[in-house]
Amino acid sequence: MIISSAGEGMIHVKHRIAVIAVMAAGVLALETGQASALPSGSAPTHPSSLASVPFSASAPVLAGGSVLPDAPAPAGFSGLGSRRAPGVVGTDVSNWTGDIDWEAAAGAGAAFAFVHASEGVDYVSPRFAAQYGGAAEAGLLRGAYHFAQPHESGGAEQADFFVRNGGRWTSDGRTLPGVLDLEDNPYGKKNRLDNCYGLTPEQAVAWVGDFTRRYRQRTGKDAIIYTTTSWWRTCTGDSRAFGRNPLWLARWGTEPGELPAGWKRHTFWQSADRSGSLPGGQNSFNGTPSRLKALTRAPSKIRLTGAARGDTYTVTVANTGTEPVTALKLAGRMFGGQKFTKAGRGCRFSGTAVRCTITRLGPKTTARLTFTVTPAGPGGPKRGLRIAAGPVTLTLPAAR
Question: Is-contact 305 45, C-beta < 8 A?
Fold first, then answer.
């Protein structure tokens, strides 16, 4: 998983095998005991008191205020990754990378780091504690990754091993979700298996499903999936089942390129940018620093309830989670021949439309929005208010 700066190649070195890598053009150095040549441009291995019947809706929202659906991303989509987000760069390291000057890495612009923690059910990187702790001390957000060995044991078993040995996630503002590293089998000469570890696509999908479900059960967070588009297509049959898991795409080149099926966008991208000044692999986050930081916090849940009485609509916004939500935006529209005449603090309206911003909503707290309306013309048989906070929508019928 680690790209060597010595050449356009990668060797994966496991704990059981001592390797001296001779770097040549087109040959990589990763943490395994075998080298493989890759063609240019290919991927690295690696409720309301006013209502007798309450109306409500809810969904999770990131600590930064961006609401997220509590369901997998729509399946059946395979898109192109966007370009690298400037300024949000990071690294991934392993035992092979050696001792790291994390202060220098931070000074060079690194915002995050992923550290190799475990492999299979019998290997823990001897440098994990030092590298993981060092990254945190230098102010980097950090996460751990597990190198999958799906032919050796079940996915749930390896997820448990990973969590016990560095992969546990906590909502502390500095720990990124754990990573499941899925790439070509680097031990083919030893285990005599193909790049898919001898698994059929159905078996591979089942294994990944077992790992990601157990990781979510143990941590409350979705594991990041690190893979290449090529490996995913070949070994899972281009499964669309894991769109809810953040994607860390490995691919050489100036752009991420085409994504595996099931993902609309990548979250991280590992490239072979030779101009990179960071130790280990050169990576970028596809978003802003605040979005990256949001991954280190548990999502809160936003719930909308409300009722209508006369010409007044009341909407209660509740944060049922454990983290504060900031800059929460809501948008509403009257229907059936009504328009706004008054809205509460933080809201602006025009005709039938209203937009509101709640600056901060603490955990287990609520905010109440009150709107006054008047008929705007001949009314239809159905009148009321529709309002949404991201994917959380609420429809309030007009009082009868």
Answer: no
For 382, the token pair is 């159905």
Give dist(CA 326, CA 329) in Å, integer. 9
The domain spans of the chain are 79-294, 300-397
Residue (of 123, 102, 166) closest to 33 by Cα position: 123
Quick one: the chain helix, strand, coil %, rounded to 5? 15, 35, 50
Architecture of domain 300-397: Sandwich (2.60)
Active site residues: 92, 181, 183
**Dist. CA 143–CA 158, nearest whole Å:** 17
Average pLDDT over residues 220-249: 98
Q: CB atoms < 10 A from the CB of 8, how many?
A: 22
Encode pLDDT of 52-91 as tens digits.
234 556 654 443 333 333 333 333 333 455 454 446 999 9
| CATH code of the domain made up of 79-294 | 3.20.20.80
HSE, CB side, 13 Å, CA atoms: give it for residue 162.
33
**What pLDDT does 57 receive?**
60
Residue 396's DSSP bridge partners are 385
Q: What is the pTM of this model?
A: 0.67
